[in-house]
Each structure stands twice: as structure tokens, then as C-alpha cells.
Amino acid sequence: MEQTLADRTAASASQPARLTEIRIHGRGGQGNIVAAYVLAQAAFEQGRFAQAFPSFGPERRGAPVSSYVRLANRAIQRHCQVLSPDFLIIQSQGLLHVAGLTAGLKPDGGILINSARELPELEAEAADSLEGRNVIVFGADALATEILGKPLPNTALLAAFLALTGLLPLDALEKALARRFKDETLERNLALVRAAASEVPAGLWRVAAHA
Amino acid sequence: MAADEKKSLFELRRTQPAFRGLEAGHLACQGCGQALGARLVTEAAGPDVIVANATGCLEVFTTAWPRTAWRVPWMHSLFENAPAIASGIEAGLKAQGRLAKVVAMGGDGGTFDIGLQALSGMLERNHNVLYVCFDNEAYMNTGIQRSSSTPHAAATTTSPSGTERMGKRHLKKDLLSIIAAHHIPYAATATVAYPSDLRKKVRRGLEIEGAAFLLVHSPCPLGWGHDGALTIEVARLAVETGVFPVLEMERGDVVAVMQIRKVRPVSDYLKLQARFSHLFKESPEARVELEHLQALADHHIEVYGLRGTSPDPRDSEGADTVRRGGLRWA
Amino acid sequence: MLEAVEGSAAIAKAVALCRPQVISAYPITPQTHIVENLASLVADGQLRAEMVSVESEFSAASVVLGAAASGSRAYTASSAQGILLMTEVLYNIAGLRIPLVLTCANRAISAPVSAWNDQQDSMSVRDAGWIQLYCASNQEAVDTTIQAFRIAERTELPVMVCVDGYILTHTLEPIDIPAQGQVDAFLPPYRFSRALDPVRPISIGNLVTPEYYAEARYAHHHALLRAKDEIEAADRDWAKISGRRSGGLLSVEGRDDARIGILTIGSVIGTLADAREEYPDRPAKLLKLRSMRPFPVDAIRQACRGLSDLIVLERALSMGSGGIIGTEVRGALFGEPNPPRVHNFAAGLGGRDMPLEIYPRLLKAAEAPTPTRFEIMDVEMEKLPETER
């Protein structure tokens, strides 16, 4: 018998409620919402509950956009905005120029930035102060170029994020990717997951993620 | 209809040409060109059609509940959506694998004006529908207001003639060119004066695959101000003066016209109708407008090549003027 | 099967499972994804339907009207200005008593132009004679869509399934997508008793004189009132197959001893339910209004018994009057021996977020010595230049 939503809800009812909220910043047309959907799909594959949605409104290519993910071990009933995320994933370093990028981020929340540059350089350029924040800079573009042949940072960023937080095992992400890609593209993405995960300090954000 | 009266399509077809989709006993005015036109269209179309009717005189005078004059399935929704209703019926029939033909009907208000967008959509999507516009050149149902089809200088209740005005100031919309620009398989004009021509065009429009359009010039004794007994005469004069060209188009190109052996002056047509009576008063403005209307008719004769020596359509009800209309005598 | 899927994709799957024969629509965000998803199902041969992409919402509504009258199961979707442009046809479809289903991906109305969610669009056509069902979640949107076809076809009334645009349509979440066999067991093929057919010719849409018009309106009004039974039955029968209920006409949940109730409509109910867990010392009953038309007067009276205060929260308003649902709820309670005080608020207009904190604020507002007749929450007029106030 296949599991239904009611089954999954009932199975989780006795667990303590835990909700993690993530905001992903990107530019229109660069797979911002896809990243959110893949992360939510990974949680789903793991038997968890998840929600992913874009910032609503007209879409413009190249404009700063954001998307949101909720991960929970209980059914998520709310359909309101994510106002105080636990984590930020910044898909492109250029977005650091946008004021209000870190708005609402919890004090102990983590920021994962896709950049090939060093943190002090980025801090100097960022419109919002990154001082005292848990920031990890990770060159997802370069790694993706090496393995996928294209600078598509989503898979690498999500793998690094899961390695940092331990929110989900990597094979949940791999299952989610298998729903989107096949054959050689999938193989390369799976290789990218492993490579990216090994480049960040595993479990560094575990405490914040499981608070 | 009780179940025991139910006839098969085969039996219904055998009743042709006696089959009348639109019965007598409706509430149209005496001499109504549209009632005659609709009867001719349904006679030619036969029993296995579904009619989508725009709001207007035809809908009002045929269907005062609980009565109806229609012997074919008939649906009226709104003023401006008959082409979209017909599109939906056609799509629905297609989805069910049914083969009935779909005919949409509207007046000039519902076609030239408020329904033009829906008509354009239906033609662009090339639905297998014959759209028939009964053109009586004004909003007759609501009290003879001008439409974009009203001829230049005609008086209506919203374009009256007076000391400062000679009726409608603007030209009749060239709908045919708009239809032609859609490059549909078949488009034609006809008039109630030539029933055989009209019926053949209906059959042609229904037999081709895709969208077809038929513009039927339909005198309105009430709105045009002529005796109800003169409907056919007035309609015939519109053709013989070049005011209303009768033609066929395929993919937007004119392929056949009803030729005029002896072209009559436009005033022969105009003077039978009260809506043009102000043009026959002695005034310089009236003379200018008469000349204007003559020039418009001359233009039709010129661009459509209407002058010719083919047999007089009066002798054949127009049966031999159609190139593609199928049977020689319909 | 349980899937992680975007709301609009799930709705499209539900529509496809109902085997529609004609689909017609005009693009308008946030509804467009639904139709795009259906178009690709048709393009891939997974759905056998006539897909008519029209030149306006006016024609979209007209095409599905013609199709349904011809005897085909028909579906369309729209939103915001599209619903307003269709309005004349919506009234006509209902008046002709033609069954079909429309998804309204709820969105605010211009002017001022807004691309975001509220429910002014469907609320503006609440008197068109359609059944209107509002969905609290994407799961309900899926289940209600399937139920809607049966309700429409049994009552010969059109059904508008209202889903909060963006908030639901653009959110990916776990949703149970039924199996084809389940839907087939619930929804028999469409047979329209008044289908246009040359061998049984009838006239649809006749002119009706003053002699009969009031009778036609009476019949339509009572058909809607009678539809309550079909709405309840469809929810019950679908639950037997799917194991899920969507809340019939109105559903109530919360502690029996709760004296305060919050009645609302659409997706905010889930936010309030989560909020209630975060504020366990403030238990309120949550009344989820699913059927706006027919309006469940008896169910509301029943649900309000024992309440001291009822807060009505809505996402639209009637300009120059106030709340739409609030006013109707007060009307429904007329004549009750001890009705609750009714406090009426609009919020979430034009995409304004309704966060969890709205829950304690509503409960606080209900403590006012005089009930709030109607108010729009969170209005800060000083944000506008003085000349614009």
C-alpha cells in the first residue's frame, strides 16, 4: 500500500515539531525557484514535509529574485511568507550589492554564498553587514564548470548546504535530482553532489539547523 | 418532441428540400430580409446542423419562450460571443466524434462591431464553422441605431439627418477586407434577392473543411424605410447599382463575382428608402453626398470587376453566378 | 500517489483525471501554469481533449459554454481581470444552467494594478449563479476539482473552484494525486440532458418575457440552494474513495469549549491552524467556509452556537459597504437566540502577507467592548502622500 499524505501526517504526529526555513537569492532566469523545488523535493523523498515557493509577482529576467523553502518533520499548514529564515543561499555573489539581502535572517543563521572570492573581499562589497554572521563562501560555479561543463551552481550549492547542516542525507538530494535529470546529465549531477559536499566542513551548521 | 416522434438523421435528410430549419409563425416584421435570409440558410444547410445565434432581431423574433421557430438545435448566449460559442460547439462535437455542422448567425452589430474580436479568433483558429452575418446595416432590434456597417450618409436614430448633418458621417466598415485578411478557406457575400446563389454559397461554406464566412445583405423595411413588399426589389437594386458586391473568396482572394449587365445609378437604390430621403432634397450638401455614394459604388464595380455580360441573375435566382457553389440550381 | 508537486501542476493533473473533452483558456498569471500543464498533457497524448487557445477570457468562457452545451465535459481557468472580463458570460452560463468547471486562481483587481493575491475577483461574481467552492490547501484544490465536475453535472450548475493565486498555485508541497481508477469510480462520463443534437432539436437561450422571468430566477436560486446536498454528498463519496474530506459546505475544528471562533475562507485557514499551535493558551474554533455559494446559513448558525465571539476574516470587500462574508454571516445569524458578537476584518489584500501573528491580533481585537463592524487590518495611511489618501 502506498503511503498517503494522511499516513505521513499520522506517522509524524508524535514527533516534536521542527521547522527550518530557507531563503534562496538569485537572479530571474537562473533557476532560483528550481533550487527551492529541488530542495523541497529532497525533503519529500526523505519522508519529510516541505514547501517551496517563489517570491510572487511579475517575472523579469536578470532581476534579483528570491524563493523560499520550508522543511519540517510535521505537516506544514501555514501558507504565509518566510519572514525570518534560518539560512540564506546566495546563488550569485553580485547579489551582495542588494540592500536588505540579510533582512530577517535569524541571528545564528547561516549564509552560503556562491563565489570564487575570499570572504573579506565580499564583506567589503556587501551592502548588508556580514560581520558576526555565519558565512560560508563556496565556489559552486567553478566546481559545476569542472563537472557539468557549465557554471550551473544549484546542485553544488544544495549539496554543500545539506553537508553543512545535515538537514537531509545527500541521497535524498540525489533522489530529487533523479526526478529531474537522467542518463549522463544525472550522473554528472550526482558526481557534483559528492564533490561539493566534501568541499565544505560537514556538520558546521548542524546546531543551528536542528535548534 | 416526444420520443415516438424522434426521426433519424437519414429520415430528416430525406425531407429536404421541404425541410425548414426555421418555421413560419415567428414574430418578424412584414418583409423582414433577415427572416427570409435565415430561412434560406437553414433550408440549404439541412437538418443536421447546430445554430449558434448572436443576440439581435433574429433571436428575439424566433424564440419568445416557451415557443421557438427553430427545428434545428439552436443556442443563443450573448451579443458578442456567437463565434466563440460556435467554436465551442464545434470543439465539443469533435471531441465526441460527432459530425453535425455548426452555423453561427449574427447581425451586423454582432459581427462588424461588438463580436468582431470573437469572430477574428474563430477565423484565425479555423474552426469548422459557417458564420453567417445578416447585414441590415444598423441596430434594428434596439431601435435603428447606427453601426459600423451603416452606409455613409444613411440616417439612423443615432446618426439622424438635420440642418448640420447628412446622416452617418463615416464610411461603412470594409468587413470583407478584414475577413479576407484571415485567409480562411471560403468567404462570400450574398443577398436575399438571389436565393439560389445564397443557398449554393451556404452549401459550399458547409462542405469545405474549416472556417467559412457569408455576408448576407438583408433589407430591413422598418429601419431602411421602405415598403415591406419591396424587400427583394431593394436588395436586387443594391447589387445592380454596385452598392453591395456579390462575390466569393478563397483564402482571401476574390474568385467569382455576380456580374452586372446593366449598371443602374445609385439613386435608383437610395430613393426607395426613407433613410436616404434627405439626399433628395435640394441642397449642395445632398448633391455632394449623392456623388459620394455613387463614387463608392463605382469603386466597388472597379475593384471587384463587377461589370460584365454573364446571364442576368434575375433569370436564374443567381444560380449560375457562383464558381464553386456545387449544384447548378440550388 | 503522494507527490511533491506545484499547486497548479496538481490541479492540472486533477483536471486531466476527470477526462475533460474541451479545455479553453486565455493566459493570465497565476492561472496560466494550470493550462500550460494541461496543454503539455494533450501534446504528449496523455490527455485526449480539444484544447482551444482563444483570444480573450470572454471567448474562453464562451467556448466552454458552447462545448458543454454540445454535450462535452468542459473546463476553463482564469483569474483577476480575466474573471471580470468573463463576467457577462459567467452569468449567462449559470442562467442557462450549463454544467462546467472553472478554476479561479484568486488575484486582486485593478486599479491600482496588482499582480498579487486576494479574492476580490471571485467575490465580485458571487451573484452570478455559480456554485463557488474555496480551497484551503492544494490537496483540497485537487479533491475539490474532482468533486466539482460531479457536483456540476448532477446539479446542472457551473462550479467555480477558487484557489488562492500564487499562495497555493505556485507552492510545491506534498499532495496526494488520485489514481485514474479512483476518479473513474467517482465521476461517470458526462451525459447532458439538454445537449444540442439534430435528432432532438431544442432551443437554448430563448427570450423570456416578464411573464416568466421571475420564475426562471426562482428556479435558479432554488437549484443553488438544493446544490448544498450534492456538495456534501460529493465530499462524502469522494472521501469513501480517497480517504480525504475537503470540508463539505463549512467545517469546524477546535476544542468544544472554545468560546471564540474565527471564520475564514481560502488558504489562510492553514496559517491560523499553525498559529493556534504556537499560541496554545488561546484556543479558538476555526470555521472554514468552503461553499460561498450556496451560502450555508444553517451550518453557520449551527457552528456558532455556544460561541461568544465570532471573528470573520476575509480577503475582499464590498466598497462602500464593508465585509462581504461578514455581512452575510450576520444575516445568517439573524433570529438566533444568543448569537455571538461578530467582528469583521479584511486582510491579505493585494498580496499583503498574513503571518502567524495575525492569530493573536484577531483574538485581541475580539476583546473590544464594541464589536468591529468592519475594518481593513494593517492600514497605514501615512505611507501614502496626503493627496492620495
Q: How would you sum up the major sheet of chain C?
A: 7 strands, mixed
CATH superfamily of the largest domain in chain C: Thiamin diphosphate (ThDP)-binding fold, Pyr/PP domains
Strand count of chain B: 8
Number of strands of chain C: 16
CATH third-tier fold name of the largest domain in chain C: Rossmann fold
Taking pLDDT < 50 over at least 5 consecutive residues as the criterion, the unreliable ranges of chain B are 325-330
Pairing-aware structural class of the strands and helices of chain C? alpha/beta
- The averaged pLDDT of chain B comes out at 92
Number of domains of chain B: 1
Task: Describe the 3D structure.
The complex is a heterotrimer of chains A (211), B (330) and C (389). With 211 residues, chain A is of the alpha/beta class. Chain A has a single domain, classed as Pyruvate-ferredoxin oxidoreductase, PFOR, domain III (Pyruvate-ferredoxin Oxidoreductase, domain 3, 3-Layer(aba) Sandwich). Chain A is built from eight helices and six strands, in the order αβαββββαβααααα. Chain A has a six-stranded mixed beta sheet with strand order 2-3-1-4-5-6, covered by helices on one side. In chain A, helix 3 links the parallel strand 5 and strand 6. By secondary structure, chain B is α/β, with parallel strands linked by helices. Chain B has one domain: Thiamin diphosphate (ThDP)-binding fold, Pyr/PP domains (Rossmann fold), CATH 3.40.50.970. Chain B has twelve helices and eight strands. Chain B has an eight-stranded mixed beta sheet with strand order 2-1-3-4-6-5-7-8, sandwiched between helices. In chain B, helix 2 crosses helix 8 and helix 4 packs parallel to helix 6. Chain C is of the alpha/beta class and 389 residues long. Chain C is built from twelve helices and 16 strands. In chain C, the strands form three sheets. In chain C, strands 3-2-4-5-7-6-13 form a seven-stranded mixed beta sheet, with helices on both faces. In chain C, strands 10-12-11-14-15-16 form a six-stranded mixed beta sheet, with helices on both faces. Chain C has a two-stranded antiparallel ribbon with strand order 1-8. In chain C, helix 7 crosses helix 8. The model of chain C has no long low-confidence stretch (mean pLDDT 97).
